[in-house]
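CORE FACILITY INTAKE
Project code: CF-77B
Contact: R.S. (postdoc)
Sample description: multi-component assembly, two entities in total
Requested service: structural model of the whole complex
Turnaround: standard
Below are the sequence entries exactly as provided by the requester. Do not edit them.
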Amino acid sequence: MNAARVNAIYRKDLRDALRDSRLIVALLMPLLIGVLYSFMFKDDTKPAAKLGVVASAPTQLPAALQAATKAAVLLKVQSFPDQAALTQQVRDKNVDVGLIIPGGFDRSLKSGAAPKLTVILPASPSFGGDYVAAMLDRVTQSLAGQVPAATIARVMLPATAGTSDSAFTALGARKIFVLVAVILMLAMIAVYALPAVLTEETEKRTMDALTLIASDAEVIAAKSLFGLTYCVISVPIMLAITRVIPENVALFAVDIVLTSITLVGLGLLLGGLMKTQTQLNTWSTVALIPMIVPAIIVGLPVPGWVEAIVSVLPTAQTMRLGVNALAGRQLFGAEWLSVAIILGWAVVGYGLVWWRLSRQEAA
Amino acid sequence: MSLSARGFGRAIIEVDGLSKHYGDVRAVDDVSFSVAEGEILGLLGHNGAGKTTTIRMLTGRARPTSGRALIAGLDVVHERERVKPLINLVFEEQNLYERQSGRENLDLFAKLYGAPPARVPELLERVGLTDAASRRVRTYSSGMKQRLLVARALVNDPRVLFLDEPTKGLDPSSARDVRSIIREHASAGATVFLTTHYMEEADELCDRVAFLAAGRIVALDTPRELKLRYGERAATVLLRDRSEHQLRLEDCGDAARLQAWMAAGDVLTVHSHEGTLEDVFVNLAGRPL
């Protein structure tokens, strides 16, 4: 492969795309959607959280927690008869955080006996649940007037599938929708902008002129670089404009780069199959659906078979990794599996492109 | 049938039993010929006769079903990468990057072929596009685009230049410009292989002409030889009574009539004319182009 040729075609494509109104619209549309979401939804909306309490005697603790967290969380308190009922409610995410308060807690606290307090949290706690749990120490110290105040035992329930509910609570609607817009932008570049460049080359026969000297592999390498460049440049622009900063920048970068590589491979495959712009306009819309829908419905309460299908699609995993990266913690588990699924699609995409090129070469 | 070049240097294109079949359709069927260095060979035929398929195979863009073709001694299929820098092609379609300027189009291909940057302004000058070099190609006329296509095909100074209908749809002035550039390139020692529908163009430009019908070469020789062999020699006779008569010189009856008019002193003028390539083609292919 001749690097100078790849570079020449790549630079031509970059320059050409800036003059191509179709591609500019394809890039601007998701960007504008992201900006729109950013204005529509706010980060500073006070999240609501529900505190479930099992207390065998009256206690001041729930009220003290409500008072201490009122600046950040709208905390509602609900009593439960026993620990099993409370645990089930936490598992079902009807309650953000559960508290088992032993009898005579307030008296023990004041006597300096450091009574045991059990906190029950789901595997992926909501922001409100996390915040309340974090405030417990300070509140009990304040009630006791000494350190250490109470012995706090945290019980994390086993992980279940992450839900958008927890993602929405942890990140806020603004960040979630900006992330969806980022995935839409990557998908638009991969299944519309990139194939549009390839299809135009085929339709106008400029591809024949290129391959008179360059190899098919050189052309494909240049187009891949073109797609990747647009993906990698446009995502930071989107984040900068919407002022969304991932807590885990490295994970976010890995997520975006892997997804870009994968979607570009699938875009190359689509572009290679299309002979005309009209065909592309039809099929790119069809191809966008399995890329966007998974990102939107990740974690929503959907039937098991829908979840199973969606979870094998690359953008569903992009969304999971993206949510984790934005939150800075694992709201969705098994990050390695997400990476493996995205990479698997990359292998499928580039493998099919390679197979098609080999067949073309033999024709 | 092996038809080789006469009066030129050594063969640079050698084609032997080349065929391309698409299912039952024989687009090119057992074609053999050779073209010498510095020669201009024209390939003529109806639409679908196999002209473009022949060029596609010779430029390595289609794999032959059977037979082989060599360019400068290199197999166009198995040594394609080594053949690529030696050839170039003016496509039938004006396949230029329309959002790019003329200069940007040439710059791209100069880089792809590893040509020196100075080659670009030199070619723009040669095809008369220096003043329009910064304009986007979409603003060019058809003639300008065609000249740019020719310039692009000359960017690597190819030893073999293929042209697929290079003057199709051009006005007479633009067509003349293009023919002049082709002739200039051939006079510098390059080989030119072109397809055309225009008989006059083939007659004017080509050292030899091959007629392709249903995928097979039915005749290949110099235009003059073809006209003498297959064309009909005729004369137009104007008599004193102002009547005009068309005579076929091979016809014994017509020859006797002419002799009689001459003897009687009835003849005012006689204009003899040899057959045209068009006549030759009709004779060989059964219908005009």
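Facility notes:
- Residues 172-187 of chain B form the longest helix (16 residues).
- Residues 41 and 193 of chain B are 5 Å apart (CA to CA).
Invoice: internal transfer
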